[in-house]
Amino acid sequence: KDSGPPSKIKCINFGGYEINTWHAAPYPEEYSRNKVLYICEFCLKYMNSDFVAWRHKLKCPAKHPPGDEIYRDGKYSFFEVDGRKNPVYCQNLCLLAKLFLGSKTLYYDVEPFLFYIMTETDEFGCHFAGYFSKEKRPSSQNNVSCILVLPIYQRRGFGHMLIDFSYLLTRVEQKTGSPEKPLSDMGLLSYRAYWRLILCHHLLDQNQPLSIVNISERTGMTPDDIVSALEGLRALVRDPITKTYALRLDRKYFKEYIERHDSKNYPKINPDRLVWVPYV
Ligand code: ACO
Ligand code: ZN
């Protein structure tokens, strides 16, 4: 619940970038009075003025997110941060995320979640590019709770990488999963594009007949999401007489779909670079 006067924050100063915000977030009132909020790109501490931010930068020892680096391939890393072990960082992360997420309610109760932070590394440190959160509860059917790529990094395939990473974890857990609903418009567009691309790969790679259960085991996707992706690819046809479904494999179309994506040359997740055991 939002309380107090409406937030005036119009933009954040983050790692030297000024980024316009999209939504209000419940920062404490004394931080919501200014148009610009200063956020340390490494520890995510929020500050009121460029003077405080400058002083903080001199003494902040962080050059990467807290937690364990569980993936590194070239300049891309993933850090797993436990909401119980690093509550302040995770609360700050949730507040930051709220500035770009329309419907997000969690800010302070971070303990039941793990946070997977994707960074891009250069000589100054591991720069925060995006993240997703995930419930620790083993019975949860959601493999992603919230997902965000900072606007300055959007439309470069990072959302795709985060989603791909979330399914990689799900496969290691020998489970299937789906993002928490409702999805935002951008979330839906990104997931749809991802699901369809994965299905194109799997439909092309197959020699033997496939079943949805089979695809589900190989991808970590739920049967519902597989059906919706197949429909999106116009690969699921219902026989009007027998009322059964059949797969229509338009290999040329699948190939074109993959080639269109590959031509963008987006960075990819390399599953071999994951060093991780599931949370217990
Ligand atoms: N308009 C049209 N298509 C889009 C858009 C858009 N604004 N955004 C993504 N897509 C589609 C495109 O097909 C795109 O591929 P392309 O750029 O090659 O055309 C594809 O989705 C994936 O693009 P990525 O570059 O991999 O994704 P990005 O890094 O931009 O991140 C994300 C996607 C995470 C959804 C980002 O837009 C974001 O953080 N949005 C704000 C927060 C948000 O809405 N999060 C999802 C909430 S739902 C949930 O949390 C479970
Ligand atoms: Zn800091």
UniProtKB/TrEMBL annotation:
Membrane-spanning intervals of the chain? none
> Could you tell me the superkingdom of the organism this chain comes from?
Eukaryota
State the protein's purpose.
Catalytic component of the NuA4 histone acetyltransferase (HAT) complex which is involved in epigenetic transcriptional activation of selected genes principally by acetylation of nucleosomal histones H4, H3, H2B, H2A and H2A variant H2A.Z. Acetylates histone H4 to form H4K5ac, H4K8ac, H4K12ac and H4K16ac, histone H3 to form H3K14ac, and histone H2A to form H2AK4ac and H2AK7ac. The NuA4 complex is involved in the DNA damage response and is required for chromosome segregation. The NuA4 complex plays a direct role in repair of DNA double-strand breaks (DSBs) through homologous recombination.
Give from-to of the shown chain within the full protein: 439 to 718 of 988
Q: Mind telling me what this protein is named?
A: Histone acetyltransferase
Question: Which residues are the active-site ones?
Answer: 180
Q: Which residues form the MYST-type HAT domain?
A: 4-278
Subcellular localization, per the record?
Nucleus
Q: What family does the database annotate? A: Belongs to the MYST (SAS/MOZ) family.
